[in-house]
Specification:
Distance between the termini: 74 Å
Largest sheet: none
Number of strands: 0
Number of helices: 7
Order of helices and strands: HHHHHHH
């Protein structure tokens, strides 16, 4: 299978699986395109540094030379897994909030706010791991480290936390639309449990005080206060 066909297969899988999970078309499409952009970025950085020789001397791997065919395969597999992981983690939280309030702007805001620290921390850890490979002095090992290190930083901090939320916000509510005929034939799959459950009614402060008084908690010893 040619490299272009492999990337095409990755894009198709990156589109179909989120369609089943999130029951939408535009969100998976944005994810698949962004995944491809991240992979192309990693491969491009790899070509510039190791094949064209840009700053390859700083890594102690000599001048520019052809890249082993094993390296792009490794980078495609690693970056597809990481980018899909970040995408699913981010969008699943947005989807959960969307099913509760049907407010696209609020869903995106909550999704980014509650997942940004986790995604950023995970990306930083992977950056440290890949960077340690980059300074090993071995050409193949250095290639496997530098490409994903650059790609994972751009994917997490630029693509997932900036570009994807901005695109979903610009598209609006129709980003969560799903044709009825497709909904009937698509199997039900919830990423984090049932996503269409009704939102629980939040307890009012008065109800909390009454419950505490009945259980002998706050306010039980002060019958004159309400």
């Amino acid at each position: 299978m040619r490299p272009a066909s492999r990337l095409g297969l990755v894009a198709v899988l990156g589109f179909l699986l989120p369609v089943v999970a999130f029951r939408g078309l535009l969100v998976p499409l944005v994810g698949a395109v962004s995944n491809l952009a991240t992979i192309v970025l990693g491969l491009g950085a790899l070509t510039a540094i190791f094949q064209w020789g840009w700053a390859s001397g700083l890594l102690g791997v000599g001048e520019g030379a052809p890249i082993s065919c094993l390296v792009p395969v490794m980078i495609v597999g690693v970056m597809f897994g990481l980018s899909m992981d970040y995408q699913v983690f981010l969008v699943s939280r947005m989807r959960e909030e969307w099913t509760r309030g049907r407010d696209n702007a609020w869903s995106i805001r909550v999704g980014v706010a509650e997942t940004a620290k986790v995604i950023g921390t995970a990306a930083t850890i992977m950056l440290c791991v890949f960077s340690s490979f980059g300074f090993s002095g071995q050409r193949i090992v250095s290639c496997i480290g530098v490409g994903p290190a650059l790609a994972v930083v751009v994917d997490a901090f630029v693509v997932r936390l900036v570009l994807v939320p901005a695109l979903l916000r610009m598209i609006g509510d129709r980003v969560w639309a799903y044709p009825r005929w497709a909904d009937r034939v698509t199997p039900r799959l919830a990423v984090e449990g049932p996503s269409d459950r009704p939102r629980e009614v939040e307890a009012r402060p008065a109800d909390v005080l009454v419950g505490a008084a009945r259980s002998g908690g706050v306010g039980a010893s002060e019958p004159g206060r309400r």
